[in-house]
From TrEMBL:
<keyword id="KW-0067">ATP-binding</keyword>
<keyword id="KW-1133">Transmembrane helix</keyword>
<dbReference type="InterPro" id="IPR003609">
    <property type="entry name" value="Pan_app"/>
</dbReference>
<feature type="transmembrane region" description="Helical">
    <location>
        <begin position="118"/>
        <end position="141"/>
    </location>
</feature>
<keyword id="KW-0812">Transmembrane</keyword>
<feature type="domain" description="Apple">
    <location>
        <begin position="23"/>
        <end position="107"/>
    </location>
</feature>
<keyword id="KW-0472">Membrane</keyword>
<dbReference type="InterPro" id="IPR011009">
    <property type="entry name" value="Kinase-like_dom_sf"/>
</dbReference>
<dbReference type="InterPro" id="IPR008271">
    <property type="entry name" value="Ser/Thr_kinase_AS"/>
</dbReference>
<dbReference type="Pfam" id="PF07714">
    <property type="entry name" value="PK_Tyr_Ser-Thr"/>
</dbReference>
<dbReference type="InterPro" id="IPR000719">
    <property type="entry name" value="Prot_kinase_dom"/>
</dbReference>
<keyword id="KW-0723">Serine/threonine-protein kinase</keyword>
<keyword id="KW-0808">Transferase</keyword>
<keyword id="KW-0418">Kinase</keyword>
<feature type="domain" description="Protein kinase">
    <location>
        <begin position="185"/>
        <end position="461"/>
    </location>
</feature>
<protein>
    <recommendedName>
        <fullName>G-type lectin S-receptor-like serine/threonine-protein kinase</fullName>
    </recommendedName>
</protein>
<dbReference type="Pfam" id="PF08276">
    <property type="entry name" value="PAN_2"/>
</dbReference>
Length: 507
């Protein structure tokens, strides 16, 4: 952990393990037969990109321990056991109102430094017992009240005390209907696993195919984000935005029903080297279409919206490879004259796509979406995922490497071999130039999305020289690099207090 970075409020480099795990120790170690343990973090939004198993809760710990690369595990009733290896780059601690128990693996020798002390509290007044009973009764009353909220209208009324913002024509689906449509959320119907929970393919009684996003309790997406997505996306209509068909709030579940897109998400094809269906023509069309979708959000819709979560897994593709932007849970509406806003809640599961001013200061604007778009463009050109690309010898991530190649006139080396065709090189290089303009460190220097589209269509012929990108070297990439060393693993948590405590074990 870099002390200077920590002191300046930059905790992105995470913490480094100071003691090897048991499975990493040599055969001569005196305690080689001892077993590693886990540190439990409560109310946590778990990272993306997990491996998962349909095992029951009490099996998760053992499954993780049997795999030396397993750094952490969690359990969710709707998913099963979830496991993480490599680095933990997008863990977020909540204030006790959302999230799941998250178990981070620690070495056996560190177990005694965990808080296993027995604390005995002897009550001096009998009134404390009465207070406990009152709390239990209050909790029970709240649970009963929550169970009475069974309709969409009642739920919205209870949230905002006003149902005026709710689209009256948005269909309300019962849990039973969605369970039947997905064959009781069968694993065979699972389309993917996102940061907010699994997505299932479903078929309604009328034969219509749908995609059902079942929000996991472990995701941390609460009622506010859920309601935000329902209200926002139901009011948006554009060819390059996914269409919301309805929602369900019942039996403790929160689900969103979308149009079903046959070709899944962009990352499924872009980063899988065995997939070669995305030639340059398709990739260029995808870049332009994503830009048009953003232009609609920023300028052309009746609401002015900043998406804040633009990344390949949130770009869905239909049967004609037309992209549609999805996941509006973190989107925000801007006022007519508002240029930027601040938030204390950063979308940490989008680390690698966030602009510097958003990641470091919580400041977002149209230009922060433009930065994310630029990262997408460079990923589409290179076929590399920004959150896992790292060159150790140069201490560079994807943005820094692209910038280095550009300045050395070796930019052709960035192009994905699957699209490396001489007849398209001029267009690809122009797109790379545009991508670098979008990821410039200063938001003032980044073009607007309308200017980007003019550049892509060559309405603007001469492009300005790009300046230094944000996160050229360490900021986001030191967190997400996959460590090949058995001596250290990075951990990044958004809650400073949790990280400070955890760093006592990992240094």
């Amino acid at each position: 952990m870099n002390t200077l970075e920590w002191g300046s409020g930059n905790w992105s480099s995470g913490c480094v393990r100071r003691t090897k795990l048991q499975c990493e120790r040599g055969n001569n170690a005196t305690d080689k037969n001892k077993e590693d343990g886990f540190s439990r973090l409560t109310f946590v939004k778990v990272p993306d990109f997990m491996h998962w198993s349909s095992g029951v809760e009490n099996e998760c710990r053992g499954l993780c321990l049997r795999n030396c690369s397993c750094l952490a595990y969690a359990y969710d009733a709707g998913i099963g056991c979830m496991f993480w290896s490599g680095t933990l780059i997008d863990v977020q601690k909540f204030n006790g109102d959302a999230g799941a128990d998250f178990y981070v693996r620690i070495a056996y020798s560190e177990l005694d430094k965990e808080d296993h002390k027995v604390v005995v509290i002897v009550s001096a007044i009998a009134g404390s017992f009465v207070a406990s009973v009152c709390l239990i009764l209050s909790w029970w009353a709240c649970k009963r009240r929550d169970k009475r909220v069974t309709t969409y209208e009642e739920w919205v009324k209870g949230l905002s005390d006003s149902s005026e913002t709710v689209p009256s024509d948005l269909p309300w689906y019962s849990f039973e209907v969605l369970a039947n449509a997905t064959n009781n959320f069968n694993v065979a119907n699972k389309l993917g696993m996102g940061g907010f929970g699994p997505v299932y393919k479903g078929k309604l009684a009328n034969g219509k195919e749908v995609a059902v996003k079942r929000l996991s309790a472990a995701s941390g997406q609460g009622l506010e984000e859920f309601m935000n997505e329902v209200v926002l996306i139901s009011k948006l209509q554009h060819r390059n935005l996914v269409r919301l068909l309805g929602c369900c709030v019942e039996k403790g579940e929160k689900m969103l029903i979308y149009e079903y897109l046959h070709n899944r998400s962009l990352d499924a094809y872009l980063f899988d080297r065995t997939q070669d269906v995305l030639d340059w023509k398709k990739r260029f069309n995808i870049i332009e279409a994503i830009g048009r979708g953003l232009l609609y959000l920023h300028r052309d819709s009746r609401l002015r919206i900043i998406h804040r979560d633009l990344k390949p897994s949130n770009i869905l593709l239909d049967e004609d490879w037309i992209p549609k932007i999805s996941d509006f849970g973190m989107a925000r509406i801007f006022g007519g004259n508002q240029d930027q806003a601040n938030t204390r809640r950063v979308v940490e599961h989008s680390l690698g796509y966030m602009a510097p001013e958003y990641a470091m200061r919580g400041r977002f604007s149209e230009k922060s979406d433009v930065f994310s778009f630029g990262v997408l463009v460079l990923e589409i050109i290179s076929g590399e995922r920004n959150t896992s690309f790292y060159i150790d010898d140069l201490s560079l991530g994807l943005l820094g490497f692209a910038w280095k190649l550009w300045n050395e006139d070796n930019a052709l080396d960035l192009i994905d071999k699957r699209i490396s065709c001489s007849s398209f090189r001029t267009e690809i290089m122009r797109c790379m130039h545009i991508g670098l303009l979008c990821v410039q460190e200063s938001p003032v220097n980044r073009p607007s999305i309308s200017t980007v589209l003019s550049m892509l269509s060559s309405e603007i012929v001469d492009l300005p020289a790009p300046e230094n990108p944000g996160f050229t070297d360490r900021m986001s990439h030191s967190v997400v690099r996959s460590s090949s060393s058995s001596e250290s693993h990075g951990v990044a948590l958004s809650d400073k207090t949790e990280v400070a405590g955890y760093s006592m074990m990992l240094r």
